[in-house]
Amino acid sequence: MLVLRWIGIGVLVFLLAVAALFLRRALVARSGGIIRLSVRVSTMLDGRGWSPGFARFAETELRWYRMFSFALRPKRVLARRGLAVERRRLPEGQERLIMPADWVILRCVSHQAPVEIAMAKSTVTGFLSWLESAPPGAVSHLVLRD
Question: Where are the transmembrane segments (predicted)?
């Protein structure tokens, strides 16, 4: 009987954790649409270091949240000002195994540090439009080299 009680508690904790992940995603998505986006968090090994997640466009920021995290705050924030796309490429080597077939990798540079992000080809158009659009009087710094 004691074993069944512990199994029940374990199942309850698991269900609460899953519900918390869905609730977190709903809270983040309530103020706008979200996109699937992976960020390369480590460049130690070629083709590795990618972390799946989702992002939300704010007025001047792209806020990225890890997929499997309970945090309500974004893990990474990319400010539109000073952000430029340096290079665009298809997944290579081991990256092809972990990313969907229709994804593209963008190497972006900013005032902070270079960052690689991966998203669906259909999402790239929206990202580039957001990056190019700027408040009146601001200058866009879009640089795209193939």
Answer: 6-23
**Pairing of the two strands 103-109 and 50-51:** unpaired
Answer for the pair 118, 50: CB distance below 8 angstroms, yes or no.
yes
Are the C-beta atoms of 19 and 13 separated by less than 8 Å?
A: no
Question: What pTM, to 2 d.p., does this model score?
Answer: 0.69
**CA angle centred on 21, ends 99 and 91, rounded to 5°:** 10
CB 126 within 8 A of CB 35: yes
Q: Which pLDDT score, from 0 to 100, does residue 5 have?
A: 87
